[in-house]
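Let's do one together. I've listed all components of the complex below, 943 residues spread over two lines.
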Amino acid sequence: MIKTLTTCFVVCFAFMGFAQQTNLSPRIANYDIDVQLDVEQKKIIGSEQLTWKNTSSDTIETFPLHLYLNAFKNTESSFIKGWWEVPDNFTLQLFADKGWSSVDIKSIVDAAGNDLTKSMVYIHPDDDNDKDQTVASVTLAKPILPGEILDVNIKWNTTIPKAMVRSGYNKEFFFMGQWFPKIGVYEEAGTRYSEVGNWKCHQYHTNSEFYADFGSYNVDITVPKEYSIGATGALVKETETDSLKTYSYKADDVIDFAWAASPHFVLIEEEYKGINLRYFSYPDHSHMANRYFEILKHSLSFFEEYLEKYPYPNLTIIEPPFHGLHSRGMEYPTLLALGNICLLPEGVRTAEAFAVHEFTHQYFMQILASNEAEEPWLDEGLTSYFEARIMDQVYGSESSAVDFMGIQIGKTDMARKDFVHSSKAQTAKNNAPSWKYEDDSYQVISYFKTHTWLKTLEGLVGLETMDEIIKTYYKRWKFKHPCGKDFLTIIDEVVTKKHGNEFGSQVMNFVDQALNTTYTCDFKVVDIDNAENRESPEDYKSKVIVERVGEMILPVEIQITFRDGKTVNENWDGQTRRKEFSYNGKSKVESVQIDPERKLYIDKDYINNSYTSGKEENAIFKYATKFMIWMQNSMQSILVLA
Amino acid sequence: MFFGFNFIFALVCAWPLNNFLENTVGNSLSVKGSLENFNYPFVGDFLEKYGDNLSFMLNQSLVVSLAFLVLNIFLIGGVLTVFKNKAVTSRLTNFFRGATTLFWRMTRLSVYFTLIQGVLFAFFFLNIIFAAKNFSIVDLTSEYAVINTIKWTLPFYLFFATTVAMIHDYAKIHLAHNSRVGLFKNFWKSISVSIRNFPAYFSLYVLNIGTLALFFAAYWFVFSIKTADSFSMVLLSFVIGQLFLFGRVGFKLANLGSANALYHDTYLAQEIEKREKAEQEKREKELKIQKEKERKLVSTF
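Okay, and this is what the predicted structure of the assembly comes out as:
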């Protein structure tokens, strides 16, 4: 009996232990934060208990902290120096008027009571800018051995910047992203690209966003009681005193925590498949809630079916007012900062695209926590690819971006155009770190180029294979830190598994060119020549010449149509610059089309992909007559001045 | 004639485009997809490759439009002269004589009214920019501030812009009827006449604009029924477009004609009545003086 009871207890404890181990992530960096927002002084007074697990096999003697908001401490920070978004005079005037922002570390004390504050020094791992203070290194009093826990208490004050990128305040709207002292990620040898154990804690650059370990966040935010708070995670408690209110939020298995505050927020909530959707906006934007909820439900369903159910119980949308648009278009764990003009016509689907994009980041950046600073393409590119897929699925591929007053634009086509026709398309390689993009090319390359080559890859290997690539990538790397190399390994593995040696090295060569070069892709039909066969007058000797104008080498299909309606499909590996196809027969070649199924989205010019011996007069007539009628009407309209 | 010129001038702009399209993309199958819908990839690729040539053609069209404007100023002088001298038998001679005589003053009048319209628009636009605080995300609280400003100022702007356009029409008519009077005198006179007869003039103008708007709506509706996706449908939509433009030109002339008639019935009738009254008074006065003289003569004898 006693033996049986003992067995029962052992089984029960084993289950309890198992239950405790069902965390989604390893929860390496955990924070208990207590912060007070001083809305008059535009400051936050904070205190955090940081608990970090050394899961590596190395002994840790120092640890780095992100002090992001020091980017706005002076004009010397790498953030301000690399800023392309706002003209310098505007920024400087703003700072001159409103004062600089800064993070002032008051104390860093470890669990044993050792004051580590004085050991803190600023470091600049990404560049030689010794004036940049966005990363600090703290030396420990006692090294942390493998398996041990670093437990420190940090007290700090922050002066909040005025209307800056992502974080900042304007009037009574506060958006706090990248706002608390945050530990870097320790990569032991063999992790991602690390050959020796080292900390990854990049400076704050204009384009860089995240790289952090998963953890649990318990955050108490105290604000004047008329203020509402929208934040990462779930609201677990509200405590009110005479004039203040404390909101307690909890978020598990996330890599960051952000929040927004305003006395003017209107909260609209909806439940979808057990997920609490919360929409915070100013009253003039509250009517946008339905548009966001609708598309987010589609997105939630899409990913539930495609990868896995969204694993968090809540999703918060912050819709900044017009004067808070500096913080729009950002993704944080379980929190989306959107932001649109409130009277957008329904056919202009910017709001929906924004929502889908930022939501997709919950998977590609948050759950698949790649290093966005080093490899922005891996999350922004994949996110853009899925943004277009979802938008195309919901609204139709030809009108997913715009369907307004007779103008229809598809999201995929828009992203393609934004890359292939951009003057910045060749300014940087696709795998450049986020701070290496010059001339405002970050978005063009990280977002649109990646999206375009992923779409081309989909065309080459087929949708089914593409889906298996993404699903394998997700399954293998969720709640971990994947890198580009891991994604490429999976592409190679899945393509080989599904297609054997059908493509040889063509697919990986293409991916390599897309990622590691600035090559362009352009195929062209040069000529069709139908000569009469002298030996047999009824026959023709036809010749078709195609050319690879761009540097990118890709396998391509060519469809040749003869006058009698017969078609021939040819495959060309694209290795040489030119290729000639010859035919003998009773019928002339009528038309030639390279890539007839439009698989090569990356081709910069579709117009020269085909050639027909007869002119396409109907469409031209349509354009010309439309233009003529437009001209007639315009001329008639200006007669109001006659 | 008005429609004919409109057609020819637009053709001058569209013909090179047609040839240009044929020579550049005419042999590409990608243009085929443009027949049914708006083809964004095609339009994007075309603009990227040939955008410079296209903007050259659009600039050319702008010059053609200005020439069309000047030609119409000339023609309107002729039309108003014909309206004025309905009794004259040789209408063509009358038309060209009037057009030539009035051209320079009509042109100056158009310039002045264009400037006034420009100032009005600038006021309206600056008001929006001011309300939008230069669209600064730092200063502008809500985009509703802009929307509310537009909501309040647009009706006023439309009212004043319409009134100015209406006065412009009456100034032209007045000029045609008083071709020997100085331009500025005419200008002020037309303003005073328009203000004096404002309810009638403005109602007629609004009626004409409203009819044109209905005509526009009908045209839009017809076009929204079916996309032109074959040669015959493209041709049909072109013909409908021409019919609509013919109607538009007709409305323009009908507007001028009706304004001229109203001007005749109001101002000219009043002027004639006034003149007749003055003449009658003069005659009565002369008669009175005559009688007085006769009475004096009788009393002397």
